[in-house]
Amino acid sequence: MKILVDRGVVIEDGVRIGLDSPGDYTFVSHAHYDHVRGEKVICTPETAELIKERYGKEGRVREEDLPNIRLLDAGHILGSSALLYEGEKTLLYTGDFCDRDRLFMKGFVPRKADILVMESTFGRPDYVFPDPMEVLREARDWVEDELRRGNSVMLLGYSLGKAQILEYFFERMNYPIYVHGSLLKVNKVYSKFGIELDGFMTYREAKKGGFLRPPFILIAPPNNNLKVEAKRAFFSGWAKDVSSYDASFPLSDHADFEGLMRTVRKVDPEVVYLVHGFKKELALELRKEGFNAIPL
Ligand SMILES: [Zn+2]
Question: How far is the CA of 135 from the centre of ligand 1 (A)?
Fold first, then answer.
């Protein structure tokens, strides 16, 4: 069993299993990636459905086809999974993950492994987020204040993952709520897997049909081009780095710095390889605790 590192990380053990990168088998951790290649894709049914809906691509083998692997819920978005490979050594690849529960998402529960390959998006000590439910409650207070003043609000979050959390949470408020059209495809898949999000009307439909009743809530991706008179709030782990919105909330689908450190302690690996984000910074912090941390 070998670990190959080229443009991505590949497990070589008779067959080559690419971790979000090409191999004889390609493990796709979640549907944020649009570079799904190869015939033999390993992923969850949810991820397969999201990829089909968003990118029109198909291809999935069941994990039973490869006896040494197990998929674990990564808690990042619907269908996101980590991969546990049990060869002569055990290897855990997290993909993007979040170790905190939030609404219908359950946080990632790490397992012990000899080798850990972990994302490090927020791997710097200044990225520590409050509890997600606390962030949502603060956002709700802000939204209610604005609506009471007669201002509509636009809640901005990535169209796959964040937007669904916002829809699910704010749907329970007694204000008119509309969504950007690009969310419908994703909502459909969430609904298919038991998270009911298919009752929303799009902003365009409402406007065209004359149903628009300000003040309202509009949920949309950050890069939308709707011209709407509204207060804007941005939801992201990067919230503290942006100032171009009326409000910003540190609601993330990733583990924060503390979550990354906690995860490594629980896995307690001989070696941890870091991919994406602040990997050098995180490696330094992990080495202070005696871990053999290698940024890739
Ligand atoms: Zn992601």
Answer: 20
Q: Ligand 1 centre and the CA of 118: distance in Å?
A: 13
Distance 121 CA to ligand 1 centre (A): 10
Q: How far is the CA of 75 from the centre of ligand 1 (A)?
A: 10
CA of 172 to the centre of ligand 1 (A): 26
Domain with 169 in it: 132-249
pLDDT in tens, the chain (296 residues): 899 987 789 999 999 999 998 888 889 999 987 666 666 888 999 999 998 888 877 766 666 678 899 999 999 999 999 999 999 999 999 999 999 999 999 999 999 999 999 999 999 999 999 999 999 999 999 999 999 999 999 999 999 999 999 999 999 888 999 999 999 999 999 999 999 998 999 999 999 999 898 999 999 999 998 999 999 999 999 999 998 999 999 999 999 999 999 999 999 999 999 999 999 999 999 999 999 999 99
Kind plus residue range of the DSSP H or E element containing 136: helix 132-148
227: which residues sit within 8 A by CB, 6+ positions away?
none
CATH for 226:
3.40.50.10710
| Cα(31) to centroid(ligand 1), Å | 7
For ligand 1, the distance from its centroid to the CA atom of residue 152, given in whole angstroms, is 29
Closest to 3 (Cα-Cα) out of 112, 94, 117, 97: 117
Cβ–Cβ under 8 Å, residues 276 and 256: no
Q: Is 139 found in the same domain as 59?
A: no
Shared-domain flag, residues 93 and 31: yes
